[in-house]
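Appendix B. Raw example, untouched.
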Amino acid sequence: MKTPIELQIRHLPPSVRRRCEKALGIAKPESEHKVFVYGTLLTGECNAHRAGCARRQKAWALGTIYDTGWRFPAFTKNGRTRVAGEVLTVDDNGFRSMDAIEGYPRLYRREQIRVHLVGGGQVLAWVYIMNRLPDKATVIECGDWKRYRSERAKRETAGEKDAKK
């Protein structure tokens, strides 16, 4: 049964009502979602801020990551490479934000996989898997998007220096 206050605020727009519920201490707890990220949502990467107030833990999962050629990677469950990443624990808003950036469900789909936490333990987490890899996608052999980008940048810089000689 609803309290008199809940009855008084039920007519408010949802976002205003949620703020009122939080202020009054009657808010329903938001759901938490664990998501394994391996690319631009990692700490220090260009889209890390899109995960909202995520709690982050270093982690890895078995699979394969690819350079799509579009400045972001793609993950598949096929393969036995140790893919470096993080487990983000996000609320509903963070999850929706991540869905938007990942183009869910059009570009990526979500599946749950077993993820290994650095320091011990395992969790079941969502991972974004590209629906169709681009023809030009290449395997990232090291399984680490940040390391791969760093090494590629060094090679490109070295190549530019050699070209100037």
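End of appendix B.
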